Amino acid sequence: MAAIPGDEAACAERYDGRDRLLLPALANSHSHLAMTLLRNQADDLPLQRWLFESIFPREALLTPDIVASGSRLALAEMIKSGTGAVADMYYHHEETAAAALAAGFRLNFAVDAKRDGPRGQTVDDAVLAAAAALTRHPSGLLRASLLVHSIYLYQPDVYAALADAAVRTGFPVHVHIGETNREVADCLDRYGVRPTVRLAQWGFFATPTVVAHGVHLDAAERSILAAGPVLLAHCPASNLKLGSGIADLSALEQAGVTCGIGTDGAASNNNLDLYRDLRLASYLAKGRSGDAAALPAGRTLRMATANGMRGLGFADSGRIEATWQADLQIVRTDSPGLTPLGDPVAALVYSAAGSDVESLMIAGRWLMRRRELLTLDEEKIRHDANQAARKLTPA
Length: 395
Ligand SMILES: [Zn+2]
Hints:
This protein is α/β, with parallel strands linked by helices. Helix content is 40%, strand content 19%. The protein has helices at residues 47-59, 64-79, 93-103, 125-135, 156-169, 181-191, 195-202, 219-227, 236-241, 249-255, 274-289, 297-311, 344-351, 378-390; strands at residues 20-24, 26-31, 83-88, 106-111, 114-117, 120-123, 142-148, 173-177, 209-213, 230-234, 258-261, 328-332, 357-362, 365-369, 372-373. It has an 8-stranded parallel beta sheet. Strands 1-12-13-14-15 form a 5-stranded antiparallel beta sheet, with no helix packed on it. The chain has a two-stranded antiparallel sheet with strand order 5-6. Helix 12 (297-311) crosses helix 13 (344-351). The longest helix has 16 residues, at 64-79. The chain is globular, with a radius of gyration of 21 Å. The termini are far apart. 48% of the residues are buried. The protein binds zinc ion. The site of zinc ion has 6 residues, from loops. Residues 30, 32, 176, 212, 264-265 line the site of zinc ion.
């Protein structure tokens, strides 16, 4: 690292690019950051039992400090594996937003604006206003979305109020749809239509929306998602681990749905290294369709870069180009597993791992350089996370 001789610009420096690849920072389209603390604590269970018997009792013990600790752990893990932006859906969003700002990381956080009002549940406009104020932070690193967990968790009047708030305020929406067969069957029993259709009837999908999963969708649902400003966050590892199924990426692409790739929370993955999900996404698309040409490396990488960044609200990130954000990563290729390099895009999607990422820059600031985190104290984060995780064991 040295200043370029004769260059007046003090900020200019030279980076030796031999045996290195330069590419945009990755965008993780769907996660629950502080669930890093629940990693490897509740495994080998189907989604409904996993959620209601293992996860929800532990989450009842969450405090703002615990969420902050889990979020910082997630940020450290993502930075070390080439990710520089994430759509998070969790509790205590202020803590996670503060952690992301301190780390220099791009965050689209979800705001839980439901509360019990005098006439039943409604939407708290004060919470939304506070979140909107956060997104006006001069760094430009933050975006806010309205948290709509899923079709199965709330009473019907809450959905109508949330859909109204999304349209009224222009807030994007972050929602899980079509994760399991049971979700679809229960929705058909309760409402007589499938989840995407019911949500559309309430007025969702008119504002930008991140839809996580989409494993169980029919053609009509895919058409609805293709027509709106929607990013479908494909979470292949989580869907496989919870036995939920395999999203039909070929059908989604043919329908014109814009897709990104997410890790989901670390409790159902069990890591936040998006490189593993890139590889899995492409292989599953090929295996499911019986077509080796399905979801080729270039399109897979675009899902995790330009598509993801745009869907998260960072429209000028995801490509390395003049006037675009300096959101980039440098990957080492002088390892046995990346030799010979061959097609560099295939190498990134099919051969590389997050540990091959050497450096990461977001908004022109190095967050990691030569494997060293520059904005986070990795040792302290691991120590605090181990302590916080112990507090989440139900009595
Ligand atoms: Zn999720």
